[in-house]
Structures are given as C-alpha cells and as structure tokens.
Amino acid sequence: MKKLITIVAAIILIAAAWYLFRVSGTTQTPVTDSENLNTLLGGAPINSIELNRSTPDTLVIPAEHVMSPRFESEEMLQSFSSTQAISFGDYLIVLEFLTENVAAYSQTGEFIQKLGGGELSQATSITSNSDSLYIYDYGIKQVHVYDSELSYKRSFPFNAPYYTQGSLKVNGDHIAYQREEASGFRMTDSGVNRLLSVAPLEQPESTIADLIPRIVPSGKHPGGFNNLLFSMNVRSDIVSSYPALPYLFVYRNFGQYRNIQLVSTRYKEIENPDLTPFQPVMGEAVRINNLMDDLYLRDNGDILLFSFGQLHHIQLQRNGEYMYNQSYVLKRGDSDDILQSISSIDGSSTQPRTLYIVSSGVLFKVELPV
C-alpha cells in the first residue's frame, strides 16, 4: 500500500511540475553568435512568450481621442509634428525630436503653452515623475526641469545620454539613461561596454548601476544591434531590449530578474545578419530591421510592446513569471486606418488603463480593456 501511495505521489508531483513548466513558459536558454548576449540570456530565468497565441482584438480609437497631427498656435512659430508624448499630471507634454518644440496640452488636446523660454535648442527626450518634468536638450547637453505647474525650475549639465528619443527616464528616486559612448556603432576608447546606466536623481553623474552589455564590439559591424529600448516604472524596475532581437530583459533592484524570449511568425520572416562581428569596409552599410517599435513598463510590472502593427500585453504573474495576455490592433475611429508603427508609448499617471501613443506625428489616447 505504501508503495502504491509513493507511486501516486510521484505521478502527481511530475504532473504538477509539467503543468507549472507549461504555464510559466519557462524555456531553455537560446544560444547566439554573441558571447555577451549569451551571458545576458543565461543571467536569469527565461520565459517564452508566443505573440501569435490568439487572434488580436481590434481597439477602435474614438475620433475625439485622435489629436491633431500638426499642432499650431499663435505662440508656435511653425507647425508642430509630435514624435514623443508623455502624460504629466493634468497635462500632455509633446515633443518634436531635435527641435526646440516642446509644448503642453490638456488631456483632450487643447494647446496650453510652449515650454522653454529660449533655453531649448535640440530637445530629444521628455520624461517625468509626480513632481517634475525633465527635458533633455542634446544640443547643449543639459536637462531642463519644470514643476507641476509647468514653471521652469532649473537646468543641470548632463553629457552622458545618447541623442536618441527616449534615452532618458526618471521616477521619484532614479534617473536611467542610454549612454552616448556605448551606443550603436560608435567607436569609443572609454572602456564603457554597458548601454544603460542608473543614477540617483539628485546625483545624475553618480552611477549606481550599469546594465545591458554591448553585444557587438565598438567600431565593429553589425553595430545597429547595440541600439536600445527601455522603460522604468515607479519601483525602479526596468525592462529593456535590443529592438532588432526577440528578447526582453527585466531588472529588479538593478539586478537581472527575468528574461523573455518573444516568438512570432513575423519575426521568422526577418532576415537580419547574424551577430558575428566583423571589421567594416569604408562606405559599407549593414541593414538592421527592428522587430519592435517601443515598449512600456507599467507600475504593476506588466509590459506593453508594439511590434509589427500590434500592441502586445505581457502580464506579470504572482510567481514572478511572465505570461501572454492579449494582443490588439489599433484602429482610428476617424478614418478606419490601422496604426502600423509608432514612435512612442506612455501610460497615464492617474489612469492605469490609459495609454498615449504617437504614430506618424499623430497623438492617440488609447483605453485598454479591463
């Protein structure tokens, strides 16, 4: 009898283990042509997420949630095409990349004011916490800070961030930024081989963590694989990715917490070069196709990812695993056009289900289902 009970118990344990493995999506660590990437992929448990698991739902964006594609006002010297937008308190802050055009609008799209009384030159990234708005000006390598009433507070020099849009994120405690000397194809003798750095918000030059390795050596092809997307939430959790590769990397307490391998039929159709580095030839260009446009880490740990015309919701479970939740096609209510690509995505600071997405210069307010 005891032997029978032992056998039954063993079968139950095996079945339970199989079920947990299947549900969690835990998978074997992929092996690539990059030693640094292989080390990163092996640095945390990895979940496999099938992005084509179900037919995507269609979310119709009401016409009143489609903001004007070209913002104009008496205070703007020229028409204003948005490339990045964030929610900041009761305002929407909209930026036109590498210009002095940063402006505040109401939640319904009415112009309020232009920001920067002459101090802006080439604004490249906007970010905020509950108290302040931060604008990174690549032209003069400074960060300009505004209070919750959009009044200018101060500026401080900051040479480190890369010029790409979204290269800077803040919350109440930390500032995270993509390093200029360790990005893309740039050659550097600085010895910096990490792409993403974190510092105390009040001491931005005092780095406390360097994350995400350069996966192709400095000055070698295909350098485009070193480009980066990342997002940080209020808890200082960070999700990052090389947009041309099907992986997400989640950090908690600035330590590698979870890796996610994304699986999609669309990804299998992309013919990117392999990761084997080689010395470039003068005038030679290597094309890298991105698999994802942007990503956003919600305060509850869920990840939203826009890839090949679909918004994917990846959900954090109580056991720390990540699971596929749902995918959405975003359809304009004013024209029935489908959003095929985006330039930025941000969540509302007061409404967890609300997103602000910029596509082809148009700002959209998107309400996710419950």
Structural overview:
By secondary structure, this protein is mainly beta. It has one domain (2-367): TolB, C-terminal domain (Neuraminidase, 6 Propeller), CATH 2.120.10. Helix content is 9%, strand content 37%. The protein has three helices and 25 strands. The strands form six sheets. It has a five-stranded mixed sheet. The protein has a five-stranded mixed sheet with strand order 2-22-21-20-19, with no helix packed on it. A four-stranded antiparallel sheet has the order 3-4-5-6, with no helix packed on it. Residues 12-24 have low confidence and may be disordered.
What is the name of the CATH class?
Answer: Mainly Beta
Largest sheet: 5 strands, mixed
As a percent range, the share of helical residues equals: under 10%
Number of strands: 25
Residues in β-strands, percent: 35-45%
Number of domains: 1
What's the mean pLDDT score?
87
Any guess at the CATH architecture? Answer: 6 Propeller
Task: Classify the secondary structure makeup into a structural class.
Answer: mainly beta
**What name does the CATH topology carry?**
Neuraminidase
Strand-and-helix sequence, N→C? HHEEEEEEEEEEEEEEEEEEHEEEEEEE
Strand order, sheet with most strands: 1-18-17-16-15
